[in-house]
Design brief:
The complex is a heterodimer of chains A (817) and B (60). Chain A is of the alpha+beta class. Classes of the chains: A alpha+beta (817), B mainly alpha (60).
């Protein structure tokens, strides 16, 4: 892919390829946001520009979000003792969880870190687990430095806290694989021997050869039943103890009776044996189990990941100096210092300093919250402005953030257990098979007692639910792969079934219905004011400046500003063509006696009503322009809401933001006023969901830590693009692309999955039905069973992978030309 | 056809050897991550010439 673009093309971000504001100079690099700019500079600076030439780089590109976290806590003795392992030669090894990993190019980039950073021995990426395994020499480089490098490349890292669980999972996967492999080999060899026996049955075979072939088959079958097949007996035993019919019950009965009776017939030297079917059943059912194991939702790491929001170190006043202490050492009443861009380590009260805090992840409030002495502040919020001093008032598990995490656990625990269709079917199926077996035995005892056992065993074997056992896992497996291509990550496939048929849909506002960042909503003022703002704000790294430049940018504007001075916390000032221009906060620029244009009061009222943040433009002391900034509605939200309604969902918006903002956004999205709930706490969202759940299915879409509890409790929780780690962990599915368009794709796809599952089940029941009929009527032969069995499984496999469950959305908001 | 009495055990021994090899592969973790190696293979192919010099440089 070429990095150089023709000049006439619309500006695109050099890092992620999304639309970007027009460059100020023709040849200057363009970026959609400062995140992408800093990542590009880091990659470029490391000499890894080849990253942008790799064919995969643009495929799943999204704006980079380096966290600029300092990761100092990674160097603590206690951290290393808990997470790192010693290697030979004094080196250490650690596993870190990566955000933002999406394609082969990421692997290329990250595994080249050892070339850039001396002392790093190796970086190995595990794409499936989103983990980087890092080996380094602690005498040469610190882990925090490695983490910062990964972060600068656009992959924020988190400690991987469930090392034990991950190990156990790896071991279990190996066990599954070993079983499938062994069972497959045995089934294949028994099948080969069976071919020889069938040949003999048609064209005649000497008895000693027949005995040899049967004896060998028997030995292999015994190995299969006693080895990999043991799991079915274990399953049947626990089903017996729990007094609940399970698929394993008829399987265990068929395996034991089929093998036992087959062994007896082999020793006697005549009769029909079903060894090839028995081993094929074991093999196919184990494949189904293995698929299911992969699809199971993993135990949530949400709690540990969210603790990453709280810094592990804090700066405490010890009476004469600031000292750095671990966050566990904090006590009530401690005096703490928090620098700009740091997260707060605990809840408390501001003692000194004025700043603004980003609480969006905690409360959903999109605007930075200004704080000063006496104001309460909360752990996990980020200090955006200048240094603050605060007194600790709630530390550790007493903090509001820790409370939120307890809420997530409670939400997950109380998630309603709806009985899945496949489970209901399995229950009926098992009951039916046992009934049929009894009927067959009775029928043949009456008609021809000498064949009664033969026919009953034939029935049990031909009705073994191998296609049925594959039906659901295969349908889900195919759908999960299709969903990934369409930009959806499905973590709990069962949740897809829980979203039928419609119900209550709760949408979060910030980042779900809106872009989740500041954009220019309104602009009142003249053309020269527009170019003056551009000239002043062009090179300023600030979310407000970026929003202004993005919103006002147009080709050709090229005013030059002189004497530019940034006024911390107020705005910026400069001289253009002899006029003094100031752009900044109303508190700085608007005085009671300022000269203002005629439209000013009306504009101000609009801005207040919509809950937008004002930016004032002044020329030579006179107010000339007013910009209103806010987190604006994403372009595809109204359409998505209409479609959700047509699918039978009642929609409500629940946000922690203020009433004005919520009403403006909600109404623009086409929601009635009574469906808009503003200033809601996470507890209230959770309560709403749990109150609705007895009667209705609840779908929750959100992105913040404040939504995590609701996501965990809803029948189907969907984390919106760019969501906080906690929400991604708590959710059942994640949208990997911006906009609610993907949500519609998810819901439509889940309807189609249901059809596929049902079609699969119907196909496998059809084959089972033929087999059962043959066994009851007495014409079934071992070779027929041996053909029916793989044929039904093949049908199910074909049906699963030929179905189009998820189609990639054709357009989505961010990629519009 | 009495050769069958020899051929079948030999065939099973050969099969057993491959099953054992597979189980050894599983136990030693060669199947733990099946997503990344296919991608990595593409990358190394493409950057091989370019990185050979770097690798020599980084070799301990």
């Amino acid at each position: 892919m070429k990095v150089q673009r023709p000049v006439s093309a619309p500006a695109r971000c050099l890092h992620c390829g999304l639309p970007a504001p027009a460059p100020t100079e023709p040849e200057a690099p363009t970026f959609c946001c400062s995140g992408c700019r800093s990542v590009y500079e880091a990659i470029h600076g490391a000499g890894l520009d080849r990253f942008y030439e790799l064919p995969w780089t643009r495929e799943a590109a999204s704006p980079a979000q380096p966290s600029q976290h300092r990761y100092e806590e990674f160097d603590d003795e206690s951290f290393l003792a808990q997470h790192a392992e010693g290697l030979a030669g004094g080196r250490l090894s650690v596993e870190l969880y990566l955000e933002g990993l999406h394609c082969a190019s990421c692997i290329w980039l990250l595994e080249r870190v050892p070339q850039v950073l001396p002392g790093v021995q190796s970086v190995r990426i595990h794409m499936g687990r989103r983990v980087a395994q890092i080996a380094w020499d602690p005498n040469t480089v610190r882990l925090s430095e490695i983490a910062r490098t990964l972060d600068r490349f656009g992959y924020p890292v988190h400690p991987h806290n469930s090392l034990e669980a991950a190990r156990a999972q790896t071991l279990e996967n190996r066990q599954h694989l070993a079983r499938v492999g062994l069972a497959g080999a045995l089934a294949g060899n028994v099948m080969l021997l069976a071919f020889a026996l069938y040949g003999g049955a048609f064209s005649g075979i000497a008895e000693r050869y027949e005995n040899l072939l049967r004896g060998t088959s028997l030995v292999l079958t015994l190995i299969a039943v006693a080895g990999p097949g043991r799991v079915f007996f274990r399953g049947a035993w626990s089903s017996w103890k729990l007094k609940r019919l399970h698929m394993d019950v008829p399987v265990a009965i068929a395996l034991s009776l089929g093998t036992g009776w087959g062994a007896w017939l082999t020793l006697r030297g005549h009769g029909e044996v079903y060894f090839e079917s028995i081993t094929a059943v074991i093999f196919l059912l184990l494949i189904g189990r293995w698929l299911q194991f992969h699809q199971q939702k993993r135990a949530s790491e949400a709690v540990e990941l969210t603790r990453a929001l709280i810094p592990r170190r804090a700066r405490r006043w010890n009476g004469s100096d600031w000292e750095t202490v671990p966050h566990t050492a904090l006590r009530l009443g401690d005096r703490l210092q928090v620098l700009a861009q740091e997260s707060l380590p605990c809840d408390g009260e501001v003692l000194e300093g004025h700043s603004s805090l980003d609480a969006s992840r905690l409360s959903g409030e999109s605007r930075p919250v200004p704080v000063g002495p006496g104001d309460p502040v909360f752990a996990g919020t980020v200090n955006l402005g200048s240094t603050l001093e605060l007194r600790a008032e709630a530390v550790g598990s007493d903090s509001r953030l820790a409370g939120l995490m307890r809420l997530v656990e409670e939400g997950a625990r109380n998630k309603p257990r709806r009985v899945l269709w496949a489970d209901r079917l399995a229950h009926r199926f098992v009951f039916g098979v046992l009934l049929l077996a009894a009927a067959t035995l009775g029928l043949w005892l009456w008609r021809d007692p000498s064949r009664a056992v033969d026919q009953t065993i034939a029935l049990l074997i031909v009705t073994c639910p191998c296609a049925l056992g594959l039906a659901t896992p295969l349908a889900y497996q195919a759908a999960i792969a299709a969903a990934a291509r369409a930009g959806l990550l499905i973590k709990d496939p069962d949740a897809l079934e829980r979203v039928h048929p419609g119900g209550l849909c709760l949408l979060d506002k910030t980042g779900t219905m809106t872009h989740g960042r500041m954009t220019l909503a309104h602009w009142w003022g003249s053309e020269d004011a527009r170019s003056a703002v551009l000239a002043l704000e062009r090179d300023v790294e600030h979310s407000i400046a970026r929003a202004l430049v993005e919103g006002l940018s147009e080709p050709g504007a090229s005013a030059q500003a002189k004497d530019v001075q940034a006024q911390l916390g107020r705005g910026i000032q400069g001289t253009i063509d002899g006029h003094v221009w100031r752009v900044g906060s109303p508190r700085w620029l608007v005085q009671a006696n300022s000269a203002r244009p005629a439209w000013w009061d009306a504009a101000w009222a609009t801005l207040e009503a919509e809950g937008l943040s004002p930016v004032v433009v002044e020329r030579d002391g006179a107010l000339v322009a007013l910009a209103a900034l806010g987190d604006s509605l994403a372009e595809d939200t109204p359409d998505a809401i209409r479609e959700l309604r047509s699918m039978g969902w009642e929609i409500e918006m629940w946000t922690g933001d203020s009433v004005g903002v919520a009403q403006a956004i909600g109404q623009a999205a086409g929601l009635p006023a009574e469906a808009i709930h503003a200033e809601q706490q996470p507890e209230e969202k959770l309560a709403r969901i749990q109150a609705a759940q007895p009667e209705r299915r609840v779908l929750m879409v959100g992105d913040g830590v404040n939504d995590a509890a609701a996501l965990a409790a809803a029948d189907c929780g969907v984390a919106a693009h760019g969501g906080a780690e906690a929400s991604l962990e708590a959710a059942d599915a994640c949208l990997l692309r911006p906009g609610l368009r993907s949500l519609i794709v998810l819901l439509r796809g889940s309807q189609r999955i249901e059809h596929v599952v049902k079609r699969n089940a119907a196909a496998s029941l059809f084959y089972n039905g033929i087999g059962a009929w043959g066994a009851i009527a007495g014409w079934i032969q071992p070779w027929m069973a041996a053909i029916l069995m793989p044929l039904s499984s093949l049908t199910v496999i074909t049906l699963s992978f030929r179905s189009h469950t998820f189609d990639a959305p054709e357009t989505h908001a961010e990629r519009k030309p | 056809m009495d050769i069958l009495f020899v051929a079948i055990p030999i065939a099973l021994l050969v099969a057993g050897f491959f099953v054992a090899a597979f189980l050894w592969g599983v136990r030693s973790g060669q199947w733990d991550d099946v997503d990344t190696p296919p991608m990595r293979m593409l990358l190394e192919d493409e950057t091989e010439t370019k990185n050979r010099a770097d690798k020599d440089k980084n070799a301990p």
